[in-house]
Amino acid sequence: MEVVNAIGRRKAAIARVFVTEGNGTISINKKDLSVYFPSSILQYVVKQPLNKLEADGKYDISVSLKGGGFKGQAEALRLAIARALVKINPDDKPALRAEGFMTRDSRIVERKKPGRPKARKRFQFSKR
């Protein structure tokens, strides 16, 4: 099997994954998954598509992650892994879509507007 690559995005985070057949190692920016994401919840989020397809120990995944915070990065990585798994086997797409792993979450931070303290917040109104 050749290298399969895919991109996942969430908020300001961008994850590029390279999937090859192997024994299940996930390296993010040349660090191990457990070092890069110490939180077990985020590790679980990243591995969700693999666990759904019972492909946890089948592929080695090398990841280039940049931008955003740790939650956005974990969810961007989940989308990228799901897209790569679909490239490997298109029959897996309905199972991943049913769990919501194939959907790009397009919600991003709203820009700050001029003359206001934040995007929607206003300064306190004074009648007199």
Instruction: Output the CATH class name.
Output: Alpha Beta
Please give the radius of gyration in angstroms: 18 Å
* Order of helix and strand elements from N to C terminus: EEEEHHEHH
Q: Compute the number of strand runs.
A: 5
Quickly give the CATH architecture. 2-Layer Sandwich
In angstroms, what separates the terminal alpha carbons? Answer: 73 Å
- Which structural class is indicated by helix and strand composition? alpha+beta
Instruction: State the oligomer.
Output: single chain
Estimated helix fraction:
25-40%
Strands in their spatial order, largest beta sheet:
1-2-5-3-4
Whole-number mean pLDDT: 94
Q: What does the largest sheet look like?
A: 5 strands, mixed
Number of helices: 4
- The total tally of domains equals 1
* CATH fold annotation: Ribosomal Protein S5, domain 2
List low-confidence stretches.
Answer: none
Give the overall shape. elongated
Give the DSSP E fraction (strand runs of 2 or more residues). Answer: 15-25%
